[in-house]
Amino acid sequence: MKHLRTLQTIADDNGGNRDIAEDGFSETANYIESTLREHTDFTVEVQPFPYRLERIVGSPLLEMTAPTAATFSYRGSGGRQFRPLSYSVGGDVTAQLWGPPDGQARTHPPHHGCSPTDFIGFPAGAIALLERGDTESMLAAGLECTFAEAAANAHEAGAAGVILFDANSPNHDSIPRSLRSLGQQALELGVTIPVFAVNFDVVLELRQALTAAPTGVRVHMMVSKTVSELTVSNIIATTRQGDPDNKVVVGSHMDGVRAGPGINDNGSGTATNLEMALSLARLLERGALALTNQVRFCWWGAEEEGLVGSRWYVDHLSDEEISRVALNLNYDMIASPNYIIGTVRPFGDLHTISAQHLTRLLLQYNGAQLAGTDAPMTQQTVCVNAISARRLPALTGLVRTGLSRHHGDVQWIFG
Ligand SMILES: [Zn+2]
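YS: structure for the whole thing
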């Protein structure tokens, strides 16, 4: 509780949050680092990494202005129809829409944007409506390219903006999750036009208009963004005792969202991780414990931006270092007000020997101590643990903790 009160005070003193763009994040990191240095003999390392933080200012717009008027709803304001992609620049353009009319999506011209020849006859200054199609048929047709490459080809052909869609999205009224970001490559390719993703309902409406008036559809795209180049950090504290070839990594993200102090998400994991480190240090100091495995406590930065810190950490480990990790435990939101105690069963990629071993251990522990409950491990769980992103068996043992109240009526605490 002492750590949580400190995190709340840090948020209160810094505009109510511990977001990576604000001092609330660096003060959180400083608190963890100084507490570890003061109270443990662990090796404490601060691992800085660069992060490009994009924030959308105000509400972006996507409208059809001719031949009929239609305004589409922005994903970030509770709408479901469009969103600007990350790494797309800001901009405000109104121009003719160029794209496939109804029923001609995958015929000719291809409109995937993967080749400059897709833009033969493209009217300079127009907005390109590009279909991503399903990856498999695109691959088979040799059409696979990144969103950034398609946007760069459109830009090269003189486009003022790009609208991307996926014809194979199962839900017409939602934007596929894959259509989120152009990635760093957009900067490398010099894409300086706005790029939006839309759901298939929008596409149907635009295509209908294109069928009726192939050159008479006009669209307005507007988005304003701020971009800051930040240096964020992870904190990594490792015990001096224990087998370094079989490390147990205990992680939690220490950043919070902009909307609040982040005491459950993830002050709860941050504080638990810190208190575990301090308790372990005290036990080791008193000689009350002999460590079998070396323990590494990690506090990740920029998790809320998409697991940036933990991915950075994993990406900068050598294969040899990876092979020395026996297990990873991840704590995110473990102060659910509406919990069930249980153990998550791994599935799919996580169904590895170490994950199974961990699950068995937890089932034993929970069975002895508490009323155990099994629950399927969700894809979200997989995402939370970026360590598993490298898909190495040694790293994919995982503990999931509670979700917050807004995720549903019944919550889980695992581990
Ligand atoms: Zn979280």
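YS: worth flagging: DSSP finds eleven helices and 14 strands in the chain.
IM: good catch. Also The chain has two domains: 2-42+239-414, 54-225.
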